[in-house]
Design goal:
alpha/beta; Alkaline Phosphatase, subunit A; eight-stranded mixed sheet; two-stranded antiparallel ribbon; 8 helices; disordered N terminus; disordered C terminus
């Protein structure tokens, strides 16, 4: 099978006609070689030498966009959540993320993510693989693909690490930092940074409990309090150590939450319009891409599919999004 030559599909457009190349230029400080879509021209060995890496902050359960990065304080669908100013004039996010608001100059918020999958299992697969399951073919995850392409197979350390629970000896302070906070997520964010410093190219850090069908406002506020300080500190820490330009940080979950609050005070599954956040790796921070309507029920500008996001992540990391692997059967593409 031949790779599709496009790095971003044509659906990534604003109503005024912004195409995939402009989308890359909007995200990237340097354009990420967006003028050439024939491949990166950078070898895996060179990428390893440069120290390229990615951290995925995975919000398991589907975080509410209204209570995180896309508040709607002037509409009934926004509920009781207020918006706060950030370090970038004109950009506001939910009051639940005051630390992230202070590093907004490093963040690129995509407010127009969209898919058709509202099932947890299938949506989780989609947001980890960039495509839906295909019977008979086992596709690698984002982390596996990054590890396969730029990981160092000669070293004894792993090239893909997933962190989601309490780290050993965390109670003794080995993985604690009063700047990151004292939650398990905080410890795992600190560990993620340390793993990158040891040459691990991909680390996923999991935060659970975002499936807020009941008591959405309190539960999301509590979850946000667990990830806000660690996420902001991780980004600041990477920048202070001159690692952020080489490290792409991705914040996302499997989908968003419904604009309408249900009778249990919760928000249900809503894949039609949700959030993702990118930072580092050459991404131009301090910007918002895409827009939903006043009620948050539909996308008004620049819809971004999961495939679009994955193509951009791969291109930002400098690896080929259509890398071919031998699955033991005929060679298959990673992305359609």
């Amino acid at each position: 099978m031949r790779p599709n030559p496009q790095y971003l599909t044509d659906v990534v457009q604003q109503s005024r006609g912004t195409g995939r190349r402009d989308f890359l230029r909007q995200l990237s400080a340097a354009g990420l070689a967006a003028a050439s879509f024939g491949g990166t021209g950078v070898s895996a060995n060179e990428l390893r030498r440069q120290g390229r890496a990615c951290i995925l902050l995975w919000m398991q359960g589907g975080p509410s966009q209204f209570e995180t990065f896309s508040p709607k304080p002037h509409h009934a669908n926004g509920g009781q959540t207020k918006a706060i100013a950030t370090s970038v004039p004109g950009i506001h996010i939910a009051e639940n993320l005051p630390h992230c608001a202070q590093v907004m100059n490093e963040l690129a918020i995509i407010r127009s993510m969209t898919s058709s999958e509202d099932n947890h299992q299938r949506a989780t697969y989609l947001l980890h693989h960039g495509r839906l399951p295909n019977r008979g073919v086992k596709f690698p995850t984002l982390g596996s693909n990054v590890a396969h392409q730029i990981g160092d197979t000669t070293n004894q350390r792993p090239n893909y690490v997933r962190l989601g629970g309490r780290l050993p000896n965390a109670g003794g302070g080995e993985f604690l930092d009063t700047k990151y906070g004292n939650s398990d997520f905080a410890s795992n964010c600190l560990m993620a940074r340390r793993l990158l410093e040891q040459g691990v190219p991909f680390v996923e850090v999991v935060s659970r409990g975002w499936d807020t069908h009941q008591d959405n406002f309190k539960r999301t506020r509590n979850r946000a309090a667990q990830i806000d300080q660690p996420m902001a500190r991780l980004i600041s820490d990477l920048k202070q150590r001159d690692m952020l330009d080489k490290t792409l940080v991705v914040w996302m979950g499997e989908f968003g939450r419904s604009p309408h609050v249900n009778r249990h005070g919760g928000r249900d599954h809503f894949p039609e319009a949700f959030n993702a956040v990118l930072a580092g790796g050459g991404i131009q921070g301090g910007q918002v891409l895409g827009k939903t309507n006043a009620s948050g029920t539909s996308i008004e500008e620049q819809p971004v599919t999961v495939n679009d996001l994955f193509q951009t992540i791969y291109h930002t990391l400098g690896i080929h999004p259509h890398h071919l692997v031998n699955t033991g059967t005929p060679i298959k593409e990673l992305l359609s």
